[in-house]
Amino acid sequence: xxxxxxxxxxxxxxxxxxxxxxxxxxxxxxxxxxxxxxxxxxxxxxxxxxxxxxxxxxxxxxxxxxxxxxxxxxxxxxxxxxxxxxxxxxxxxxxxxxxxxxxxxxxxxxxxxxxxxxxxxxxxxxxxxxxxxxxxxxxxxxxxxxxxxxxxxxxxxxxxxxxxxxxxxxxxxxxxxxxxxxxxxxxxxxxxxxxxxxxxxxxxxxxxxxxxxxxxxxxxxxxxxxxxxxxxxxxxxxxxxxxxxxxxxxxxxxxxxx
Length: 258
Ligand code: SF4
Fold this sequence. Notes:
By secondary structure, the protein is of the alpha/beta class.
């Protein structure tokens, strides 16, 4: 093992980043700049006092400390989830695709230890980089932000072309994927947005999606980093606010949950 990765947090006992109890490794670096980002310190070029370099071995050892919890956290999963129900390790960020070599070595080291792996990703990377890393992960938690290209650029700073191309190639290779949609007020939370998103997923034959209602975790961090924040004081969303939105996905045959 030789690669090192720039990591800004390793969070233990997470219950929201894949099945079971998980350790989440937050990679610094993201090619997107979503207005609502809850980890703006992870985006490229941002200063981040907490980030430091970790070797693969060091990261692996931290993850292995909780092996017992991964093994014992088997439990019910959201409907339609993959059969695996224990815990494991999730690469998050930022986006692990920005540190390909480190991500790959870490994933392979975890696999050797029979630890389940997941990766939260925006899917924005050259196809060969995306696939090389995606292939080494057990479960992709793949974010879709908008179906409309122009609106995608407005919200995230990049087109969704490459993202959808990578998603399509992962589907063709039968990758285990859970689509996750951050639902952001004024950006993609209208019923028309739900119809566009549901239609997009249905056209790709995707059968399940998790909705992530907007929260305000990013507000303080934007302030601390001196970054403009367009969602200041915008009320958070809750599952009960999005029932109609969710029904539109169900109507397209997509198993949609929170
Ligand atoms: S893709 Fe995720 S980490 Fe990257 S800017 Fe958007 S919300 Fe933040």
